[in-house]
Amino acid sequence: xxxxxxxxxxxxxxxxxxxxxxxxxxxxxxxxxxxxxxxxxxxxxxxxxxxxxxxxxxxxxxxxxxxxxxxxxxxxxxxxxxxxxxxxxxxxxxxxxxxxxxxxxxxxxxxxxxxxxxxxxxxxxxxxxxxxxxxxxxxxxxxxxxxxxxxxxxxxxxxxxxxxxxxxxxxxxxxxxxxxxxxxxxxxxxxxxxxxxxxxxxxxxxxxxxxxxxxxxxxxxxxxxxxxxxxxxxxxxxxxxxxxxxxxxxxxxxxxxxxxxxxxxxxxxxxxxxxxxxxxxxxxxxxxxxxxxxxxxxxxxxxxxxxxxxxxxxxxxx
Length: 318
What we know:
Blueprint: H1 19-50, H2 58-89, H3 95-128, H4 139-161, H5 171-201, H6 203-206, H7 209-213, H8 218-244, H9 253-263, H10 269-275, H11 278-317
């Protein structure tokens, strides 16, 4: 995109007319829908995380950082993308708005990928039991979060300042996340296999089903890891293919479709990470039950007020 071009009219080849207009309206509806879902999901995840009492866990801080990054995507990137599609439906290009969208999207995307990599490494090192690694937050881990956000700003400036179109700086982060989660699953499988063998060898453990019931099965862990990795690919792969294969320009319908696909994980990321851990599941259920209890009380109070009003009307009539 030529930033110095301040013309308000889109080039004819980028105007959404005819079939392109119908596709653009569908894309617009998808963005509005997922923007609403993302706001709801991130708010729920925020309530679950910040209402949890165990605030000294490193995972808690990393997840908080991820929620902030995804809120930037949800409240910043997606509304800007909706505005861009609406403008182009009217055959109007807004270079300043396009540049703002790219800046916010690039910064939030790097922050999100960096935080996801931190979470993956944190889980990997903790499960492997190496380097006397603890599950609690330390000053070094806090510094790692700060470094991720600083590097997100630096990478955003480098990418946009040099107008790098065909090089992905997020590829090493994605590879690291995949390798870390593969190691996590392998280690958990080994631990479950060792426990199963020891329980078969020890008859006393076989007679204690309560202890065996406390073990976490491997298939929920596998489902959680697969879901996280699928969302990670949805965030990374469309942009990578678009830039690497030179599929189009930043005003085309294909670019907006790619951007929409990359923004969809923001609606699911925090909730998935919360549901993967028991403490956050409990907090989420507790928050939802409070809202349900509050709605029940409001309904009962409205019914009482309505009955009293109806009684006063009947008394006045007689």
